[in-house]
Amino acid sequence: MGLYPVFLTITLPDRFHPSSKNYDSTLSVRDGVRHLSDSWRSFRNLKVFSQIKKKTGHNPIYLKVIEPHKSGVPHVHVMLFLPKNFILVMKQIFKRHFSRDGASKYAQDFKYTWSNTSGGAVAYLLKYINKTFKNALEDKMTMEAYYFARHRIIRFTCSRVLVPLYIHRKIKHDPRFRDFLRCTDYYHSGVLYSVFNKRFVLFIDDPNEADQAIYAKNPMIDDLFKKSKTRVPDRIVKHREDSRVPIFIDGQKSSFVFQHKRIFEPVIPVYDFSDWRLLEYYRALDPDLCDFNHFVNVRNLCASRGLIDSDPVLTHQLFGVNDYKFLCSIS
């Protein structure tokens, strides 16, 4: 592809550093990460990146990792791949852009020579990648890993220029697709693509012939695998019957006891009933079975609303159901 690696270091302005006299104590680690992301995004939107895309046919390729200083303040390392004639131009633009951001120009680094580095740019980059993934092999969490988990920081990211890894991993068994950059060219030219929710990877070898299925996920095997993962209970527990004991207070169901626990149900007072509900409730009451005082109170409420043709009855004038029936017969 004719690209050369450039290693960038981007730091935060003085207001993020506790050792600075301009330190702002209200700024958190998340604020610093957000500021670094915004700065990197604004840098990638500069005109020089459009010129690189016009020359190479795609956006610049980069790998980005976030690292903390000893003080806990985050900074960013970026491995950026550029055409050779853009390196010095990018260096000037890089220094000028991030010095405007408020950070010291001496705190930013732009490295593009690798003569004294053992292993070159690849070894320089792998040092940071190894620090990212080595914690997965350890049972205990290091302070560095806790730092990224505590502040919810995605430590390692990269550009979306190359072919997706989920495609390359499925077809790299074929000698034609072992070269990652060649697969990227196939992918961007449209002759290599994925369909049906990533179940098939197809390749157009000859436009006059049908597309070749380089990878095909077997749906039958997939369904059998899912069925084998179905969890079978260790023991069969007999379903317990719902033993609910209703409780009536003042003629209304107020709560019930379930397995020695009282579970309250919402109770609407009678005087909050609508006219239709109150009349239906009154007609369903039997003075011989329910609380007599409650029955008289409901009847008086219906009479006061004009739902029944009767005058209110004072309960202290009644001694029982018989007195009530006698009073109703003469009224």
Describe the 3D structure.
- By secondary structure, this protein is an alpha+beta fold.
- It folds into 3 domains: 3-158, Alpha-Beta Plaits (2-Layer Sandwich); 165-225, no CATH class; 249-330, no CATH class.
- The protein is built from 11 helices and 11 strands.
- The strands form 3 sheets. Strands 4-1-3-2-5 form a 5-stranded antiparallel beta sheet, sandwiched between helices. A 3-stranded antiparallel beta sheet has the order 6-7-8.
- β9 (245-249) and β10 (252-258) form a beta hairpin.
- The longest helix has 16 residues, at 29-44.
- Mean pLDDT is 75; it is low at 220-229 and 256-260.
Can you list the strand order of the major beta sheet? 4-1-3-2-5
Number of domains: 3
Q: Helices and strands, in N-to-C order?
A: EHHEEHEHHEHHEEEHEEEHHH
Strand fraction equals 15-25%
Would you spell out the secondary-structure blueprint of this structure?
Elements: E1 3-10, H1 29-44, H2 47-56, E2 61-68, E3 74-83, H3 87-100, E4 109-111, H4 120-133, H5 143-150, E5 156-158, H6 165-171, H7 180-189, E6 192-195, E7 200-203, E8 212-216, H8 219-228, E9 245-249, E10 252-258, E11 261-264, H9 275-284, H10 292-304, H11 321-330
Antiparallel strand pairs: 1-3, 1-4, 2-3, 2-5, 6-7, 7-8, 9-10, 10-11
